[in-house]
Amino acid sequence: MNRTGIGICVRDDDGAFVLAKTLSFKVVHSINVGEALGLYYAFEWLSDMQLDHVNFGTDSKTTHDAFHSRKVDNFEFGQIISACQSLFSTHFTNSRVEFIRRQTNEVAHALAREATLLDSPVTYFNPPRLLTISFLMKFYSHFLLKKKGSNM
Amino acid sequence: MTVDRARVMIEEWQNAQENGRANTNNVLPAVYRLQQSVVQNDSSAANNSGSHPAHQLQWQRPPRGRLKCNIDVDSRLL
């Protein structure tokens, strides 16, 4: 079945795991609409948890730029961004939305990929196993590349 | 003689239990958001029945400081 998955991962100042969430929809959205929805649900979830002082990171430049823009867009993407702006200004005082490189967003991506396999939203209070596996694979590939480089 | 041996055995058992608890507490900081707490909904009832209070893990808000929230989306087409 076609699904769009959203992965949200919250870490503290030191990069330690705090919370994570996956949710999915039985529909495939365009990338931009999906990213904007991800931002919306992240705002909604963290405001429900009454967390503030958050740096929200998205690897979608379009979503990031639209969020900081004042342009009016009456299409689906623009309407979701407008809802994001409204939710953000209502619930967050000392927070910001920033663009991050895709390489630094691997954990959220692993969660999003997992979300497409799940029917219901899942909140993780401990680092999910898939993150550990993802980290180990990354570490191992980095180690192999380094070893290959030193052999050459 | 038998009483002394029994006393030593009980003391060793209690020490082992305390060490076990200490080790569990040492492990918890790895998942430090989850702290073990004793839930006593009705302490008098627990005392009367002699049952042990229920232990459960509770999530705690992170201490003050900035948080980072990463978001990403993926699609699956079948």
Q: What separation lies between the terminal Cα atoms of chain A?
A: 46 Å
Chain pair with largest interface: A-B, 51 and 23 residues
| Rg from Cα of chain B | 22 Å
- Overall, the morphology of chain A is globular
Element order of chain B: H for helix, E for strand: HEHEE
- What's the arrangement of strands in the largest beta sheet of chain B? 1-2
Sheet/helix structural class of chain B:
alpha+beta
- Estimate the strand proportion of chain A: 15-25%
Q: Considering the protein shown, what is the CATH homologous superfamily of chain A?
A: Ribonuclease H-like superfamily/Ribonuclease H
Helix content of chain B: 40-55%
- Low-confidence spans of chain B: pLDDT under 50, at least 5 residues? 24-32, 36-46
H/E topology pattern of chain A: EEHEHHEHEH
State the CATH topology of chain A.
Answer: Nucleotidyltransferase, domain 5
What can you see in these coordinates?
The complex is a heterodimer of chains A (152) and B (78). Chain A has one domain (4-127): 2-Layer Sandwich (Nucleotidyltransferase, domain 5). Chain A starts with a strand and ends with a helix. Chain A has helices at residues 31-48, 61-68, 76-91, 106-115, 129-151; strands spanning 3-11, 17-25, 54-58, 96-99, 122-124. Chain A has 152 residues and is α+β, with helices and mostly antiparallel strands. The radius of gyration of chain A is 17 Å and the shape is globular. In chain A, α1 (31-48) runs parallel beside α3 (76-91) and α4 (106-115) crosses α5. Chain B has one domain (2-59). Chain B has helices at 2-27, 43-49, and strands at residues 34-39, 54-59, 67-76. The longest helix of chain B is centred in the N-terminal third of the chain and has 26 residues, at 2-27. The chains are: A alpha+beta (152), B alpha+beta (78). The A-B interface holds A 1-13, 15-19, 28-29, 31, 34-35, 37-39, 42, 46, 51, 53-59, 100, 104-105, 107-109, 111-113, 115-117, 125-127 and B 31-34, 57, 59, 61-62, 64-78.
